[in-house]
UniProtKB/TrEMBL annotation:
Keywords: Glutamine amidotransferase, Transferase. InterPro entries: GATase_2_dom, Ntn_hydrolases_N, PRTase-like, PRTase_dom. Residues 9-303 form the Glutamine amidotransferase type-2 domain. SUPFAM superfamilies: N-terminal nucleophile aminohydrolases (Ntn hydrolases), PRTase-like. It comes from Flavobacterium pectinovorum. This is Amidophosphoribosyltransferase. PANTHER family: AMIDOPHOSPHORIBOSYLTRANSFERASE. One of its GO terms (molecular function) is transferase activity. It comes from the Bacteria.
């Protein structure tokens, strides 16, 4: 994506099912779990670079011994920083105590971070700021082992404010309004309740307080706690939690908006936000990694018992399609094919834009995430060309000479690496004066491969704000003096805000929205903007279930092509000599390419939870009232 879009988070959970000695013997180190966590987090760095955090739990320790460790960082390279801290500390201890080297029991007793249960997180915030306090995992401490709660999630709730109010209604006094704290305190509240209940039961059965503690831990019904806590949640989430004594869970929203995958054998249980992370780090095949089903929680009891339990009734599955288009790594077997299909399916529109003149067209892509859809586009273009050659040969088979046949077969689809991101330049971009010129050079171009008679087709994953296209890419492409620049977006037009984990909560930032406004103005239809506002305003105090997305009226007046053409016009400027065209994927084709991820609210306004309609209304009102704020 040429626009920097802050998005996503990644979770990583590992539970070692065997005693630590086993890993020392088999893999040469009792720090096996930490090493795996490092890899799992690094392999998800694409999901978040605002911050990273790690927590670990040692099972079965004696009172007085530390059993929970946590490190968080919001430094420039947060994952590196977290593991540098962990490494330093471990090496310090091992250096000071050479006798620990082969003594796993001593390592576990004396060195932090080593343990049997781990939770990691990489963050791009969608709520609050990027302070260290906002970095996951969050920790709710207690002197009772089983009441310690550690939480990390890839999530965004549309109703955090309401959830926060609920806590206050319960008499609580949360010390901050971070969304993760709110969710954690909610789970914490029901955890406390469950513990109380179990304690009463134990008491009735004649257990002493001390005896009751492990019995409570054993009997804790995680599914019940989660079901109570999740009742009013409205959002997209994959929430991972650990309890101090060693239970763990990962719980996914009922529409399956946010992703969560797991793997299990007799040594480990592993959860991550992306499948290939688990495949690579544990060297296991595609089929052995499964999805946590929507509305379900994977529950790992301290005993090692693993179960999948339904927490909430699943709704229609609307897994986020942006995961497939852009966020998740394309190394996933399915995602790789899906991205290629996105490229393939858009070829007809591309051919139309270049009058099928493939001889005078160079195909390229904007690095790096669009590379896979580029391969798909080019394969489809090759098929098209072959078909054309076929037809020609069949039609002219009587007159064809060896030379013309050779000439014909030599014709190829022209592909070049035209745009190269010059990442280093970004750090200079500070001052406002001459900023535009600097920004223009964020992308470098390859000279000498484009002729003035050529079309230049560039595929990108998606176009959000269009700023980089306007300020840099199109300007730099124009220096190559093509006849026409065709920008191809493998995603449809982004028309509506996200409220489920992508930090895209403002309408006026979206180039499609600005284009629609411009068209409304041009055609003297701007009164529709006022009408939409009035309708949104009237719904302000409605229950979420009753709110309708009226913002669709802004787009309803126009065909997608009209909006695309307007976007092209807005991204071009008088000094650009080439004709600029923009093509977006059709929503129907997106669904054909990515059939398992039908969540498309940012393209269609079709939100999978009632809170989504409230958010899009709020976003519109924020725009209309000139408020620069997130809409949830
Ligand atoms: N992208 C995410 O999943 C963010 C998680 C959470 N909402 C935060 O801001 O910390």
């Amino acid at each position: 994506m040429s626009d920097a879009l802050k998005h996503e988070c990644g979770i990583a959970l590992v539970r070692l099912l065997k005693p630590l000695e086993y890993y020392k013997e088999k893999y040469g180190s009792a720090f096996y779990g930490i090493q795996k966590m490092y890899l799992m987090m690094e392999k998800q760095h694409n999901r978040g670079q605002d911050g990273a955090g790690f927590a670990s739990i040692k099972l079965d320790v004696d009172p007085g011994q530390r059993y929970i460790s946590r490190v968080r960082s919001n430094h420039a390279q947060p994952i590196q920083d977290v593991f540098a801290q962990i490494n330093d500390r471990i090496n310090e201890e091992l250096g000071a105590h050479p006798e620990y080297a082969d003594d796993v029991a001593a390592q576990k007793a004396n060195i932090p971070y080593i343990g049997e249960l781990f939770l990691g997180h990489v963050r791009y915030g969608t709520f609050g700021k990027n302070s260290i306090e906002s970095v996951h995992p969050f920790l709710r401490q207690s002197n009772w082992m089983h009441r310690n709660l550690i939480l990390a999630g890839n999530f965004n709730m549309t109703n955090v404010k309401e959830l926060f109010e609920n806590l206050v209604e319960l008499g609580q006094h949360p010390k901050e309004m971070a969304d993760t704290v709110t969710v954690m305190e909610k789970i914490g509240h029901f955890l406390d309740k469950e513990v109380m209940q179990l304690y009463q039961d134990c008491k009735g059965e004649g257990y002493s307080k001390r005896e009751a503690s492990p019995v409570i831990a054993d009997r804790l019904d995680i599914a019940k706690i989660l079901a109570r806590s999740a009742k009013n949640l409205d959002g997209g989430y994959a929430m991972a939690g650990l309890l101090g004594h060693g239970d763990a869970f990962v719980f996914r929203d009922p529409a399956g908006i946010r992703p969560a995958y797991f793997y299990q054998d007799d040594e480990v249980v592993v959860v991550a936000s992306e499948r290939p992370v688990i495949q690579t780090v544990f060297n296991v095949p595609f089929e052995s990694v499964q999805e946590i089903e929507p509305g379900n929680a994977l529950i790992i009891k301290k005993s090692g018992k693993v179960s999948m339990e339904q927490i909430l009734e699943p709704t229609v599955k609307k897994a986020c399609s942006f995961e497939r288009i852009y966020f998740s790594r394309g190394s996933d077997a399915e995602i790789y094919q899906e991205r290629k299909n996105l490229g393939k399916l858009i070829l007809p529109a591309v051919l139309k834009s270049i009058d099928s003149d493939t001889d005078n067209t160079v195909f390229s892509y904007i690095p790096n995430t669009a590379e896979t859809s580029f391969y798909g586009l080019v394969e489809a273009a090759q098929d098209f060309l072959n078909q054309r050659k076929n037809n020609y040969i069949l039609e002219n088979r009587n007159t064809l000479t060896a030379e013309t046949l050779q000439e014909l077969l030599a014709v190829k689809i022209r592909t070049e690496k035209v745009a190269i991101k010059d990442a280093k330049l970004r750090t200079f971009i500070t001052e406002d004066s001459s900023r535009d010129d600097l920004v223009a050079h964020v992308y470098d171009v390859t000279y000498g491969v484009i002729k003035p008679t050529d079309n230049l087709v560039i595929i990108d994953d998606s176009i959000v704000r269009g700023t980089t296209l306007k300020m840099s890419i199109i300007k730099m492409m124009d220096r190559l003096k093509p006849k026409r620049i065709v920008i191809v977006s493998s995603a449809p037009q982004i028309r509506y805000p996200d409220c489920y984990g992508i930090d895209m909560a403002k309408l006026e930032g979206l180039v499609a929205f600005r284009a629609a406004l411009a068209l409304l103005k041009e055609r003297n239809l701007y009164h529709i903007v006022d009408e939409v506002y009035t309708k949104c305003k009237a719904q302000e105090n409605y229950l979420d279930a009753d709110v309708v997305n009226y913002v669709t009226a802004i787009y309803d007046q126009f065909t997608p092509e009209e909006i695309s053409d307007k976007i092209a016009e807005m991204l071009s400027s008088p000094e650009i000599n080439a004709e600029v065209k923009i093509i977006f994927q059709k929503v129907e084709d997106l669904h054909i390419a990515c059939p398992k991820n039908l969540g498309d609210w940012y393209f269609t306004g079709d939100y999978p939870t009632p809170g989504g309609n409230r958010v899009v209304n709020r976003a519109f009102m924020n725009f209309y009232e000139g408020k620069d704020a997130r809409a949830y």
